[in-house]
Design goal:
heterodimer; A: mainly alpha; MetI-like fold; 15 helices; disordered N terminus; B: alpha+beta; Rossmann fold; OB fold (Dihydrolipoamide Acetyltransferase, E2P); 2 domains; 6-stranded mixed beta sheet; 5-stranded antiparallel beta sheet; 8 helices; 19 strands
Amino acid sequence: MSLIMNAQVATKPETPVRRSRWMALSGNRNWQAIWFMLPAVAFLILFLAYPLAYGVWLSFTDTRMGSPGEFIGLGNYIWLMDDPVFIIAVMNTLIFTAGASIFKFVIGFYLAILLNKRLPFKALIRAVVLLPWIVPTALSAIAFWWILDSQFSVISWSLKSIGLIDHNINFLGDRDLARASVIFANVWRGIPFIAITLLAGLQTVPVSLYEAATIDGASSWQMFRRITYPMLTPIIAVVMTFSVLFTFTEFQLIWVLTRGGPANATDLMATLSYQRAILGGQLGEGSAIAVAMIPFLLGAIMISWFGLQRQKWQQGNDQ
Amino acid sequence: MASVEVRDVKKRFGAAAIIDGVSIDITDGEFVVLVGPSGCGKSTLLRMIAGLESISGGEIRIAERVVNDVPPKQRDIAMVFQNYALYPHMTVRANMGFSLDLQRAPKAKIEERVDRAAQILGLSHLLDRFPRQLSGGQRQRVAMGRAIVRDPQLFLFDEPLSNLDAKLRVTMRAEIKELHQKLGTTMIYVTHDQIEAMTMADKIVVMREGVVEQIGAPLDLYDTPANQFVAGFIGSPAMNFLEGTITPAGFALGQGIVLPLQTRAAKTGPAVYGVRPEHLRLDPKGVPVEVVVVEPTGAETHVVARIAGQDINCVLRERLAIAPGDRLTVAPDAGIEHLFDAVTGARLN
């Protein structure tokens, strides 16, 4: 009781000081938190939330380049359901994403395991592995364009020189070869991300676990299957989610290499959306194609989140 | 169960010799503790016995079989690591049964062995937990359980208690000793803690800088250390070392103080006189010392005193009303003095 009275006495001299509204806004901790967040929030709203919301809005309109357009509800989506090119693009995107992701994962994981072993010039090799990731996509795509060119392809030239083939391979002109080529280029570019991230994960596995397993009698494969892989699943989940998202939304590589051709064989949802909206001027329809990617992406995130990321052994202490 | 022979074993990393010609004989069922300061090569030697490190020279035999080139899994050993090395993504049950599971042993057999080991270690109620849900002591027990389940002929322990707090260490020490008595399996145990070595071992191997300083039963090492290093390493508080000269009249400390010698030294001249703090007692006929620090512990009184310009620790049973600056007369117990060469540190009596 006496303590409370003392406290009241102590605060009394401060009451005559009138704090301005500005003082309240700048001094209050909660307001300070808002001030600090404001630049980031403004940035996110301006460059992420607004374009996304505007894109979703456009997909419900028949907006064209130069005409404001009107709200047509699900019109664009209903129309796209019957559009064979859109269906092809969706299938292409799924095949492209699945194919590229599987190859990237397997090769990237293998590389990570190799790089985790004692190697001479390890730092140099790691730097080299990162190269495809560092080179701008457009540049590496142009390099692939030359490598896969119907007339000047270095692959065709080499195979011809050693006498395995007698005419150039039309990498980007044949439907299946074009699909395989863009997947290959995407895999080449995407491996470093997976390899380096999984390598970081591998290095968090204590060596003593492998030593214990060695004494327990585990073979190399058993160590991978029973220790390395389960211990890396959380990291794999995150890495593969990102990888799938990047791959699903791939645009640059395809656009430089094939522009979706031949005959829409390599058209992905991203490239089709660009063709329809920007080149064709059908902003509403293009937006609808782009928005149609969202459920797939959310699905990928859900699978990784619920299926892989949170393993029981990592969860909090529930003694 | 198995005997272990280590014959002139060497380990080199480039030019540096980590282990330099170590020989140890371990008989079947013995509990041997490798002890020494950090960097003495004791863990490396254990890992060489386990097969986790290659052997640069010499020979290691387990159960009379040379194992230099035998992979760890064929050595029929189990190892307990300092950080436990439990598989974090497996339950206690799966951790303990992992080795049998790898051998594709029948489920019933795995279950039976895990249950038996869990019973021995009091882990039965924790079998479905994950390692992160266990305390340090429980994790340590699971690591031991994993070793027991394998029913190996040799247990290796690599500083298994150093991650535990002091109180738990004492408990686990007794548990490991009891486990050894129950199982009767040969055990090799590495530690830097001489108390662990003293309390647990049948035989202690004291190592320093890659060589064995002395091998013997704990009390033999305590009573007759082979050299000044072992004398200072074994025993707590550490042995007092006084520099002086061996003369026909006794051990001359300078300032006219001469300690009587009851044993015969191998030579006269400059030497080190060793006496354990607990072997000093108050004696009116003893040598005069000046009290520097008094530390009452309840059970006994620790006194740091100065004698002929050198500090000496005494552990006295009496409760004393003394203060720094006071003078006492102390004398060593009869017949337990230690004399060491001033240069080589070798025992002289």
